[in-house]
Design brief:
Largest sheet: 6 strands, mixed
Number of strands: 15
Radius of gyration: 25 Å
Order of helices and strands: EHEEHEHEEHEHEEHEHEHEHHEEHEH
Number of helices: 12
Shape: globular
Helix content: 25-40%
CATH topology of the largest domain: Rossmann fold
Distance between the termini: 56 Å
CATH architecture of the largest domain: 3-Layer(aba) Sandwich
Length: 461
């Protein structure tokens, strides 16, 4: 995990957005725009890491809100493996900068001093040595200057044996099931029902579970790890203190699970918070089961189920591949079907398509419906390969990868699912330029040979 910390308005959120490749954290010229911790999974070469944007550290703060922001930043520092300490090159160091440096040194964590808001030429910032972190990284998050160097150095740190980036080291003999959902939908009650005992605290008060809890269970020789989490809400609805901490730990639990069980309350219907939680699952590339709890309260079971599924199809149309199951944690109706579903989804997540078979399928698909052209240029897909499993990942080589519209990407995904199922799991489709790695790998030996021959000719002349 990487935490981005620093005083207000030094460009932490801009750096966060640049590293994840999209605008996710709110940016503003006004200090203190980021109040709580915002997190997102991103990649540094072959490594994955949770990147956390924190609120500004203002050591002269007096209000309760600013004190809470400071507490949230401390939690992020405590959990982090690597810290980006961001300062502003356009301003002199402040008391808050020095106080933050002292706090970070005490943490004994690996710290990168990142000097933001630099122009395109490299500048020496000797005064920043006073903070006690040695050489700094000169960047401009707004203009993308110095970002590649920061990424490369981060990956090198990850490669050290004594450093632990956020990579899931899981027991391949078990299947991790994360129970996610809004507060008070019955996640802990469902886990207790599956375990056959009251292992977890259950209360009518929302927010009883404050940290992720792992429990192992063996079902017909298959081992599962049940991960009960705190209730997740939309970022704007998350309150201060313990709830923010709990929500962050719930997301960490999702990243180390295999399959997410999105628990809904039949009596409450489906709202935006439920859809927002499902988006977390998609971003993490996990398996997904939609679990509608409290089915024992239905007046007309058949009609109520049809009505609820119709509502799901309308509000969560982006996950038509996710199985839906109606259960009752109170009466244990249908709950043990969850294990069978999880086993089937695991098989789908581990499925691998032969390269030749996949290429024949994609070639036939493109012949039926070619991708829309870019101006006068034809968009071509020249290669298709499954590059990973859990989740299944497919890489497509194209002459204009950025011009392949979202609707055509969705068309390819839908056709892959029709042909190969992949029921219950997210898929990842990546499109890249045909001059990328595959082409470079083929050309690099030839280029090296030509360079040696040219050098030899020059030396003889």
């Amino acid at each position: 995990m990487i935490a981005i910390v620093g005083r207000p308005n030094v460009g932490k959120s801009t750096l966060f957005n640049k590293l994840i490749g999209k605008r996710y954290s709110i940016t503003s010229h006004l200090p203190g725009t980021t109040r709580d911790r915002v997190s997102h999974l991103t990649h540094f070469g072959s490594f994955s890491a949770i990147l956390v944007d924190t609120g500004g550290l203002d050591f002269e703060a007096k209000s309760d809100l600013e004190e809470d922001v400071y507490t949230q930043a401390q939690i992020a520092i405590q959990d982090a493996d690597l810290i980006y300490f961001v300062v502003d090159s356009s301003e002199e160091l402040t008391t808050s900068d020095y106080e933050a440096a002292t706090l970070l040194r005490k943490s004994k964590k690996t710290v990168f001093l990142v000097v933001n808001k630099c122009d395109a030429r490299r500048e020496e910032h000797y005064n920043f040595y006073e903070l006690g972190f040695g050489d700094s990284f000169s960047i401009s998050a707004l203009h993308n200057y110095g970002i590649d160097e920061l990424r490369n150095k981060t990956e090198k740190i990850f490669l050290k044996d004594n450093f632990k980036p956020y990579r899931v080291e899981k027991d391949r003999s078990s299947i991790g099931l994360a129970f996610l959902g809004r507060p008070n939908v019955g996640k802990s009650s469902l886990v207790n029902a599956l375990l056959g005992e009251k292992r977890l605290i259950v209360s009518a008060t929302p927010g009883t579970t404050v940290d992720a809890t792992d429990t192992e269970i063996v079902v017909r020789k298959d081992k599962f790890v049940l991960i009960d989490t705190a209730g997740l809400r939309r970022r704007g609805k998350i309150e201060g203190g313990v709830e923010r901490y709990s929500s962050f730990r719930a997301l960490q639990a999702l990243y180390r699970a295999d399959i997410a069980l999105l628990v809904l309350d039949h009596n409450d219907g489906i709202n935006k918070q439920d859809c927002h939680v499902s988006q977390y699952v998609l971003e993490a590339g996990k398996g997904l089961i939609i679990v509608v709890n409290k089915s024992d309260t239905m007046e007309d079971a058949e009609k109520d189920r049809d009505r609820y599924i119709h509502q799901l199809m309308r509000k969560m149309s982006y996950v038509p591949w996710a199985p839906v199951i109606f259960v009752s944690a109170l009466t244990k109706e249908n709950i043990f079907t969850l294990f069978e579903l999880a086993l089937n989804i695991t098989i789908e997540r581990q499925k691998r398509i032969d390269d030749r078979e996949l290429m024949l399928f994609i070639t036939h698909l493109i012949a039926q419906k070619p991708p829309p052209s870019k101006g006068k240029s034809f968009v071509k897909i020249t290669k298709a390969k499954q590059t990973n499993t859990e989740p299944p990942e497919f890489t497509f080589v194209s002459n204009h990868p950025d011009s392949i519209h979202f609707s055509y990407r969705r068309f390819i995904e839908n056709e892959l699912r029709k042909k190969y199922s992949f029921n219950g799991t997210a898929l990842r489709l990546r499109f890249r330029n045909r001059l990328d790695r595959d082409q470079a790998d083929k050309e690099s030996p030839l280029r090296a040979k030509n360079a040696r021959e040219n050098s030899s000719r020059r030396s003889r002349s």
